[in-house]
Amino acid sequence: MKLALFLPYAEPVLCLAALVVMQRKRQLGKFRFLAFFLASRLTTLAICLPLMRFAGIFLSLVAAYSIYFYVYWLGYAVEAVLGLGMVYEVYRLAMAPLRGLQALGMLMFRWAAGIAIAVAIGMAFGPHVTSQRFIIRAITQLQQTQSILTLCMLLFVCLAIRPMGLSVKSKIFGVSFGLGILATSELIGSAWIAHAPSLTSTYSTISMNIFLLTVLIWMTYFLLPEPRRRMIVLPTTSPFLRWNQISLALGDDPGFVAVGGVHPEIFAPAELEIMRRASLKMGPV
Description:
There is one protein chain. The protein is mainly alpha-helical. The protein is built from 9 helices and no strands. The radius of gyration is 27 Å and the shape is elongated. The termini are far apart. Mean pLDDT is 75; it is low at 252-260.
C-alpha cells in the first residue's frame, strides 16, 4: 500500500534523473525527441499530482477535475506526437550510413505519421460526441497508431541491427527497446480497458511500473559505455545496398537542357569561338 502511494511521485523523479543523465552524457542533442518526451511527462505530472493531492482544499473538486482532465489529455496527446518523433529519430540514426534508404524511409514515415494523425481525428467524430469524448477518442486512437508504428520500427531495427553496424549495447537499440515496451503496454492496456473497465485502476498501476522500468532501461543505456559502430561492409547482392543505390538515384537533382531562346551573351568568348569553328567545319546546311 505504501509502495503504491510512492509510485506516482517516483515518475517525475526518474524523468528528471534521466534528463540529467542525458545532459551529462551529452545525448540531449542526439535524442531530442526523447528529451522532450521526458520533459513533457515531467511537466504533466508536476501539474496533475498537486491537483490530486490538494483537490477540495484550494480548489473545488469540479474545478480540479476540469483542470486535471485537460492537462492530462493534452499531455497524453503531446506524448503520442513525441513518440512518433522518437520513432523517426531512431530510424534516422540507425540508417545514417545509408543516406539513400534513410531519406526514402524518412519521407515514407512523414506520410505515415500524417495519415495516422488524420485517421485519429476522423475516427473521433461520431453522433452525439461531446468535446471531452472527442478529445479522448482522438488522442487514444493516435496513441494506438503510434504504438503500432513503434512496434514495426522496433522489428526493423532488430532485423537491421547487424547490417547497420550496431549492437544490442548501442543507445539506438536501447531507446527503441524502451519504446517497444511502452508501445506493447499501450496496446495491451487499450484492449484491457475496453473489455474490463472495472480493472482500470489495476492497469494504471501496472502501466506506471512499466513506465518506471522503461526509464530505468534508458538510463542504463545512457550510463553504460557504448561500443563503437562497426564499419558497414555489404555484399554486392545485399538488398540494403541495392535499395540504397536506387534511393540515391531517385534523389539526384535532374539535369537541365537548353530548349530555345538562348542568347549569345550567356556564353563565354572561348565557347563562342569553339561553336564558330565547329559550324565552319560543318559547312553550309
